[in-house]
Amino acid sequence: MQSPAAPWGSPRTPSPRPASRTSSSRTTEQTPLLARDDRSDHAQQEAPRSPATASLLRTLSGSSSKPFWKTRWPSILALAVLCVAVVAILLGFLAAEGIDEYAMQAADFRPTRLALDGLAAQGARVRIEGDFTMDASKVNRQGVRNIGRLGTWIAREAETGPFDAHLSLPEYGNVLVGTAHIPSIKVNIRNGHTTHISLVASVKPGSPDGIRNVANDYIDGRLGQIRVQGTAEVPVRSGLINVGKHLVEQSMVFNGGDMPALPHYNITKLNIREANKGRKGMGADASIVVVNDFPVEITLPPVGVDVLIDGCSSDKQVFVGTAETADIVVKPKTDIQVNVTGNVEHLSDSLTEVCPKSAKSPLDAFIGEYIKGEDATIYINCCTFPDPNTPDWARDLLKDITVPVPFTGKEMGNMVKNFTMANMHFSLPDPFAEPGTPEASPKISAVVNVDVGLPAEMNFPLDVNQIKADADIFYKGKKLGNMDLRKWQKANSTRLDAHGKEGPSLLVQSEIKNAPIEILDDDLFSQVVQALLFGGGKPIMLDMKALVSIGVDTPMGKFAIRGIPAKGTVPVKPPHHEGGNDLKSRMAALNIRVGNLSIIGTTPTSITMQVYVNMTNPSNYSATVPYLSINILVNGTVLGQALIKDMHVKPGNNTNLIATALWDPFTNSGLKGRAVGSEMLSQYISGFNTSVTLQAHNGTIPAQPGLSHLMSKYPITLPAPHLSQPKPPTDGDGDGDDDGDDKGDEKDHFIQSTTMHLISSTATFTLNSPFHSTTMFITHLNATAYYKDDPAGQILYDLPFAVPPGLSESPRIPVHWTLGGIGYDAVRNALGGHLKLAAFAHVGFRIGEWHERIWFRGGQIGANIRL
User: Fold this and answer.
1) Residue-wise pLDDT tens digits, 390-426
2) 296-300 and 282-290: which strand pairing?
3) CA nearest neighbour of 351 among 340, 338, 359, 360
4) Is the same domain home to 320 and 446?
5) pTM, to two decimals
6) Cis check: omega of the bond before 383, within 30 degrees of 0
7) Which domain holds residue 293?
8) What are the distances in angstroms from CA 637 to CA 57, 640, 810?
């Protein structure tokens, strides 16, 4: 006789029996004569089960998310016992040589309905319907086929009395799965005749602990194969002939690949909302359609489960919330509509805390997989039954069983729609930071705006209160560097409702402070600088790809969602100015002016000066410079350094910026440097148009040698500051010069005017010191006065005298007149009046410990002639 799991469809062509299912029988005194024999002379064995048969087994495994032995075991048990009964009928009446082989191959049972009629205190009532047919064409050997047709034509019908069938698992210590009481069954066993069978079996579950052990092995993937054995003592009769009771044993082996799989399902509706009144946290409503291709009819009672997700370790799950279903009505071959209501009261620390050796919490990992469209996994811990009428055996059978269920993610593309920055402020690194550390990187402060797209199903209050990100910066597709926002920054958010095709979104705004920027490609950064300086005034576009983390406040409590992928483009505008785009024009746009020099330190070879700087920042960005060292060059020779400490530059006009200049030609460039420095000072004191070049070097920013080298490619040449009457830095622009209020060239001269006394042959000078608060000394003076290129007198004076800040008058200095000369005659003729003289002098200066000798040339010096 054919195995109980015979196909439901068209007749089957005999073929070798699959290795995954085997049947066995035991011969006793009560065993029918047609018991199955596995003799070697059988040329053909039982045909393989069709796909419909395998589908039936999967159907009986359950149309919900649980394996077959969890929710449909009464149906399986009933069907298995029914098949055992059919085998018993045939074995009891077909007791001739060869008839057993005929019975095994010709019998065909096709279930048409499997329904749960109700639950009882001790078990369940299961209705089974199907069609039983004997099909001789499926028998392989002609002799067996002929004998079988004759024997069944004589017997015509067979009938069993009521009996109990037991289903057990031999490899699990013969644990009893369940017992079914089968009523009397009568079938027509003639070839080609079909008998419709309809019966109600009472099914009683076996050992709950044993069933749970098998279920857990299956869920954990430890169940390589399982053998299910059915045993029954079946009373058989045909007409008035009582054959007696026959012991029937039938077993089936399921390999791992034959185990029933979870049915396909589709979430058609998901709404996440605030919890209903009287409950805490958030609620969720979901509608799930489960594909049901099987002839199963059952009504499942309401059930509640705990929902869990993977924890920090792979073998540990973390509780999230609960879910409940109403009654679930399953109809044959009809998709099942399941309505689920969930509730999450609060999020535990184990759910939201970052896992060891990881940057994410269990909740982060789950949400990250979901929003990327990947399959996440949720775990259903079964079960509670809200209906008090649910029998205790059902509660005992299903409790403490956890089933993993794939949870298909929803691809959201870029959940962060836009990522922009405004009001950017740049800071150079700490000069004493270790290179390669975050402290050694330039820093940026800005207002960050993030537009986060929200899924339409999220309908609950959501407030973002903090944000952080790790962003990579790209220029023309190449990675320029990265911006480190690993520290949480305060944030606020505004929900934007859906409009048009755009769904709802959350506009998050945060003011970040001092986020380090690490430049990874100096050559690419050089291209960025060049594009800003010489790009025709067009902004450059920097692409940013970031992993954004946000801290949110929800009805469940506060928690963080980490690692949300985001990307955006940040335009960087170049300095705005009138004029050309060459370096000279752009440097001119800075309009740097220096004044109010003061000496703050000296050595025998150096002077340290403090100056006030006015400049125009043509960009829209502000910057803070904690430390900057720039070489001062004259004609390519390094004479000193300009130092900037803690300088803040804002967009537009900047006044009273303080810088320090170290003048030390000998230390920087030796004797050549001293000579170049002396010449430069001579021209400077004489009021010539002198200039200095400011150029970065490898130590400009000690913590960033690469950036320093890049800056060295862009030297800046500036005019030396005017020698003007020092003024306090409160005159408007703070440069301390006269701002054009003085007329003529006299304001630029060291010697403003002189008074000559003819009788005493002396002269006094009005001197203009370039220093704001420092007194200098003239230690040597060898000067000649000229009138129209003719000498008028000479001064040779070696007594030091002081030159205090601002305008001062020298002591009377002896003058040796050039008697008889044209120059002297001009002086004498101007007695009591005013005369314009020129002068050339070699002068020795001393300021503190520093001393230097320079030359001085003055033209059109106003000389007052007195007796």
Assistant:
1) 777 777 777 777 888 877 666 555 566 777 777 878 7
2) unpaired
3) 360
4) no
5) 0.53
6) yes
7) 265-408
8) 93, 9, 35
